[in-house]
Amino acid sequence: MSKTAEELKESVRVAYSAIAEQSPDQNLSSCCGAGACSTSDTSFMMKGEDYASMAGYNPDADLGLGCGIPTQYSRIKEGHTVIDLGSGAGNDAFIARAQTGVTGRVIGVDMTEAMLQKARKNNEKLGFTNVEFRHGEIENLPVEESTADVVISNCVLNLVPEKARAFSEIYRVLKPGGQFTISDIVLEGTLPDNLREAAEMYAGCVSGAMQKNGYLGLIFSTGFLNVSILKEKAVLIPEDILSKYLSPEEIAEHHGSKIGLKSITLTAEKPGKAACCEPGSGCC
After folding, report:
1. CA distance 78 to 36
2. Biggest alpha carbon distance in the chain?
3. 228: number of CA atoms within 13 Å, CB side?
4. To 10 degrees, what angle do helices 163-173 and 212-222 make?
5. Residue 165: which H helix or E strand, with range?
6. What does the H/E/C string look like for 25-52?
7. Is residue 46 a part of any domain in this protein?
8. Using a CB cutoff of 8 Å and minimum separation of 24, what contacts does 20-25 make?
9. Are strands 260-269 and 174-188 parallel, antiparallel or unpaired?
10. Using a CB cutoff of 8 Å and minimum separation of 24, what contacts does 142-146 make?
11. Using alpha carbons only, what angle is made at residue 150 by residues 225 and 187, rounded to the nearest 5 degrees?
């Protein structure tokens, strides 16, 4: 029997409360802290990514749960107001703060109290007065309309049951002309049941991932413009995980197909105010 949206969210709360107490090494075992028992190097989602070199990086806030670096592409400027969805222990929020500077503002939103406590403790150590962390759900953000210049999120939207509402909320809280940059997990093709089981074992967030085309279509239908994929890479499930669920023939077939998981980083813009008409026309 399928879980309701509230049951799914409660499952995420329970899982992420536990993750908040784990070490980064444990969380690096998957994009969502699933804790897969692979003997290979399991920090697969962040291969080729270097958070530690970015201004504002704080190792205490990095739980190793991302699938990209949205702040690297978000075009945050000094003085901007930034909202980080699913802010966790504060890693992306603190990097955004380094970009927006002392004249800007960063609001992290998370629905897991243990994560909020961790983020607030980290922020207290850093002494930032223009960074705050609010309790709330992405489908009902505790933020006023037209607040943010930029919205960021890292490997979180896939966990949200009601994605249409989530994108509507992102649209609502963005200023006209504002933009969001999100790193997330999507599917390409229909995963066979045994491959889906292997994927969920290795990356717990897979169960909520959408088909890539459907994901992009949802963003367009919300009203966003200039939707662009900035980075895309395949999520490779280790052989020792695959072998628990697939035969050697099925593994070979999987490697030869285009079906699988993708980590994408994308951006889109909320339309700005309508341009003025001819001077004296009275339409502005």
Report:
1. 40
2. 74
3. 8
4. 40
5. helix 163-173
6. HHHCCCCCCCCCCCCCCCCHHHCCCCHH
7. yes
8. 20/63, 20/88, 20/89, 20/112, 20/114, 20/115, 20/117, 20/118, 21/114, 22/63, 24/59, 24/62, 24/63, 24/64, 25/64
9. antiparallel
10. 142/109, 143/83, 143/107, 143/109, 143/173, 144/173, 145/172, 145/173, 146/172, 146/173, 146/174, 146/175, 146/176
11. 60
pLDDT in tens, the chain (284 residues): 456 666 666 666 656 656 656 655 555 544 444 444 333 333 445 555 678 889 999 988 888 778 899 999 999 999 999 999 999 999 999 999 999 999 999 999 999 999 999 999 999 999 999 999 999 999 999 999 999 999 999 988 988 889 999 999 999 999 999 999 999 989 888 777 777 666 665 555 566 788 999 999 999 999 999 999 999 988 877 777 778 777 888 788 877 787 788 899 999 999 997 544 444 444 44
Which residue range is the domain that position 260 belongs to? Answer: 5-269
Task: Return d(Cα 129, Cα 115) in angstroms, integer.
Answer: 19
Tell me the CATH number at 207.
3.40.50.150
- Backbone dihedral angles phi then psi of residue 155, each to the nearest 5 degrees: 60, 45
Domain count along the chain: 1
- The total number of residues shown for the chain amounts to 284
User: End-to-end distance of the chain based on CA atoms, in angstroms?
Assistant: 54
54 vs 72: CA distance, rounded Å = 8
C-alpha distances (whole Å) from 135 to each of 45, 107, 116, 166 are: 27, 10, 7, 15
In a domain, 133, yes or no: yes
Kindly state whether residue 50 falls inside one of the protein's structural domains: yes
Residue 87 lies in a domain: yes
Place of tokens 């290979």: 40
